[in-house]
Amino acid sequence: MTRPADGQDAPPADAERSSQPLSPLSSAMAFSLAKPPVGFLGPAASYTHQATLQVFPQERWELRPATTITDVFDQVQNRHVLKGVVPFENSSHGSVVVTLDNLADRDGRYEDISVEGEVFVDVRHCLLAAAPDFQRIKQIHSHPQAFGQCRNFISQNLKGAEIHEVSSTSRAAEIVRRNGTGASAAISSRLAASIYGLDVLAESIQDRDDNVTRFLIIRNTKNPPQEPLSANQSNPAGNNDPLGTKSLVSFTVPHDSPGALADVLGCFKECGLNLTSINSRPSLRAPFQYVFFVELGGHRYGQDGRVESALSKIRDVAESSRWLGSWETRR
Fold first, then answer.
1. Distances (CA, A) of 130 to 136, 144, 197, 204, 287
2. What's the topology of domain 13-123+211-234?
3. pTM given for the model
4. Per residue of the chain (331 residues), what is the pLDDT tens digit?
5. DSSP secondary-structure letter at 105?
6. Residue ranges of the domains in the chain?
7. What b/e string do you get for 271-305 counting C-beta neighbours within 10 Å, with b at 16 or more?
8. Using an 8 Å Cβ cutoff, are 201 and 127 in contact?
9. Helical H segments across the chain, by residue range
10. How far apart are the first and last CA of the chain?
11. Identical fold at 13-123+211-234 and 126-203?
12. Which of 22, 129, 134, 137 has the fewest CB atoms within 10 Å, measured from its CB?
């Protein structure tokens, strides 16, 4: 399985523009413009682009594609954009580890980043190629998450094809368009097929029909408060009744202390908070030591004060901890 090297296939012109550093003055001026900038994992037609359009319509926001998820975090931390949209987890293939790694912030690069919202996209993958000949396909390009979501189709129909991981599904479509030989295919969206002029060889090739990806909206806490998202903006289904709130917390524990993880989790139980997910990533401090992520129901600044109380208790028993944000639930 090959992975994209740095600089492989130059990004589109708009992505190149978005990667140019802005001076602090330019950054401050950008946020006062009629169309504040929002970063997202590009290029155009990526599922992250589709998620971004749900919440940030182009008539009100300047959408800036980035080449990688880490680039989006850099844009937000450096205040080159007002907000960013990144994939967080898929319902059938789990967490997006690059996003978790950036939230873990092991080297202190993203100390000002906070999560302020979520967006859901129903994902329907297609097999795209430059020629409508299924038998010619020797290589498949896509994001690792897409490969994981389409295992059955690949094993049944393209068992001998080489797998090439790239930064996004729309990036895969762009590569196949440039290749143009018909021997390469992309797992991407129907929208990408339209934008990049590719044939759709197969539709809905994901393993599950209920395939959904959740995206996080991130912001820099040093930026001045902006107009909050309306329910209709972040919930295009039109349900104006919020479904509750969520918070995301990360922490580390002393791994040589018996019951250390249980002590932290017990803080949530003591405060009557429901944990909806728990993940971990290597801390890189020592082998087999971890940064834990817990998502829970409730807002840090909720009137009942339970989340804030739990955070206070965690600070007393964890090795380190960080509140990563609270937001309204959308599904």
1. 11, 21, 8, 18, 45
2. D-Maltodextrin-Binding Protein; domain 2 (3.40.190)
3. 0.83
4. 443 433 333 333 333 334 444 444 344 444 556 899 999 999 999 999 999 999 999 999 999 999 999 999 999 999 999 999 999 999 999 999 999 999 999 999 999 999 999 999 999 999 999 988 888 899 999 999 999 999 999 999 998 899 999 999 999 999 999 988 889 999 999 999 999 999 999 999 999 999 999 999 999 999 876 654 443 344 433 334 457 999 999 999 998 899 999 999 999 999 999 999 999 999 999 999 999 999 999 999 988 999 999 999 999 999 999 999 999 999 8
5. T
6. 13-123+211-234, 126-203, 245-328
7. bebeeeeebbbebeeeeebbbbbbbbbbbbeeeee
8. yes
9. 13-18, 24-31, 47-55, 69-77, 97-104, 144-149, 151-157, 169-179, 190-196, 231-234, 260-270, 306-317
10. 35
11. yes
12. 134
Q: What are phi and psi of 60, to 5 degrees?
A: -115, -20
Which superfamily is assigned to 245-328 in CATH? ACT domain (3.30.70.260)
What architecture does CATH give domain 126-203? 3-Layer(aba) Sandwich (3.40)
Instruction: Return the bridge partners of 290, or none.
Output: 282
